[in-house]
Batch of 2 targets.
Target 1
Amino acid sequence: MLLIHCPYCDAARPELEFRYGGEAHVARPADPATVSDEAWAQYLYFRANPRGLHAERWRHIHGCGRFFNALRDTVSDRFVAVYEAGAPRPDAAETKR
Amino acid sequence: MSEARAANPTPPTPAFPDDAEASLQSVGAAARFVLRGETPAARLAGEALGVAAPGRINRAEAAGLRAMLRLGPDEWLLVADGEAPAGLAGSLAQALDGTPHSLVDVSARQVGFVLDGRLAARLISAGCPLDLRDGAFPVGAATRTIFLKAEIVLWRRAAQTWRLEVWRSFAPYLIGHLAEARRGAADL
Ligand SMILES: [Zn+2]
């Protein structure tokens, strides 16, 4: 079973306790009424879907309940880094590879 | 629906082959609260409860039949076995007055069991993917996790004694699968 390190529990926990939450760092436009249809569609529906490192949200739903972010390699399924919600994407972890 | 049943329903009785290797007992009626807030709120609730609020996540502290389990960074489960929720709710609300928090009575939402014996950890492992060995899950550790399809709260009270809390409607499911695991572990 895949083990995922929860930054709030600070422990490796079984994948079954987690729920995937989609791409991370997708900011909702501050004033949706002023956003064009194209920009709103971009926000709602378009994601990077990279081959390689992907910053994504996870929720430790059957554990501490918290959302957090992770850098995961979509080729190897390896978790390169996990970090708390609100923290910036850790570039150091990418250059270290 | 009768008022009494809604307020404090009787927990289901475990249908479990009780012996020295493994026993499963219902803890009976208990008062339970979910406290959400920062550390000061937890400390005040702990003082009202007479329990030291656990400082670390996924740890529990107990005093007599009362306990506090830290299930999340800002979430504590308060349990008082054998008590009615009403009295405790009052003293907790009084202690927390003026401190930002949320306090929810979940006494009737879930039921508690004590699983005890040499095979106890093996039976839990039949449905729970957590590492339950001493180094990873020592005495005093407590966490929300899953048992097959049911969410449970698991608390290691002693080396071979485990407290399980499960939402009421999942209790027969949990008991049934523990009993099934017990049959499978008969030769261990
Ligand atoms: Zn967690």
Target 2
Amino acid sequence: MRTEILRLLEKNARLTDGEIATALGVSESEVRAEIAALRESGIIRGYKCVIDRAAVDRDAVSANIEVKLTPKAGLGFDEVAEQIAAYPQVDAVYLMSGSCDLLVTVSGKSFREVASFVAEELAVIDSVTGTATQFIMRRYKEFGVTLFGDEDDGRSKLSL
Amino acid sequence: MIDYSKLIAPAVKETRPSGIRRFFDIANTMEGVISLGVGEPDFRTPWQIRSAGINSLRRGHTRYTANRGLEELRLEICRYLERRYEVTYAPEEVLVTVGGSEAIDMAVRAICAPGDEIIIPQPSYVCYEPITRMAGGVPVIINTRAENGFKLTAQELRAAITEKTKALILPYPSNPTGAVMRRGDLEAIAEVLRDTDIICISDEIYSELTYGVRHVSPAAIPEMRERTILINGFSKAFSMTGWRLGYAAGPTELIREITKIHQYAIMCAPTVSQHAAIEALRSCDGEVALMVEEYDMRRRFIVDGFNKLGLDCREPSGAFYAFPSIAKTGLSSEEFCERLLYSKRVAVVPGTAFGDSGEGFIRASYCYSLEHIKEALYRIGEFLEELK
Ligand SMILES: Cc1ncc(COP(=O)(O)O)c(C=O)c1O
């Protein structure tokens, strides 16, 4: 049941416990208990809505920032990552293989806001030895949801 | 001035485009319609199947195949039928066709002489009757009953058989009712057919889409294999409606004759689709299982939804349709559907599209996301409130 609940919620977090119970053919209280357990164990971390931000605010921008680090004593990758993650502007922080150490996604109201965050906040962190900022020009797909075109799947409304 | 109507062969002229065509046209052009009306999966064809199709084009497989289909594909079909349904066929006993549709048409044309009767249980998919008529045959309709879960009973079958009966169409799992014939149900049918020369044309296009029960092919019932033409395809199981690929399996003596018509009418099924289908059969059990699981969730959801709205809806065991009764509203199926479309912009199919015995029912497809089904049910609820 756990896998099925996660699959349903990952696709559509708006489903109520009752609706999930109906879809899975189990009782609502079982679903409620399972979801509580999933939250408690930290598997479910939150519920979000996929928003096409560009459609809400044309100036809004995001950037992926490749960050290079030189770990200092007592300040490993994890500590620096946690420090960066604490900024509200930061959407995501990942430890990477390859040319950079951390990949940080930052959102802001404008190019300038993001640029100044990188220059004034990120770049000055003690262990950070370099940053490379790539602005996101257009979003085509996010969280598995496509953000272009209409939703028409090409099927007619009625067929036998 | 050519009078075209005089040119058209009577059997074709008499085949009217299905009565609800007009209703369909309206629904298909109306703005803001939310539909539970289609008979095809919302899932895209699994990626590795698409990829196999693309690769076959890259490698230049762009010519005709053998009339009966690629040897490799027919072999995979045999393995699949054995693995999934415990029916054993040799590649010579399989013909690859342009969808299940062609296989049904060819099978009927191969055995139906003018005046022969073909028994068709209804409510059922719409093609059997016109195909029979165009082959010069006489459709003999059995109106299956809601009390029996729209399954065909031995008694009904026995009553429909005459000396002219050539074949029985067995359309299960059923579009539109979702009914599935269990082994016991099929054994009772086999009991009736055993002493006859009646051929069973078994349309098993929804065989993969059953819930809580396993599909049993009539060909797996003792003494039925020799009188069965098993028809199946890739449209529903693998979400491959647009690839147009299906097949017929049966005794060589029959398949050989069917292949003659296919050879002259079609040449061969699309080559690219045949290559893709090999991949589907070889490596997509997991994808199919996931899709079935998803349909199953939607099925429970929509059935529960209709029952909560007060429209009695039994749990369908197969295909991807719910078939709730709207008798309580006092409206005919067509009135219900038209008024629902005009007042709430929800498109469903009147049960009567599938035969007179569909009166009092509507077909609601659950080839849609839960969110979509939820919205449609909500609007149907509003409609029912306003009817009161
Ligand atoms: C019962 C049934 N048989 C056959 C078909 C035709 O399928 P295909 O795409 O294989 O021609 C359909 C399609 O809706 C169907 O519902």
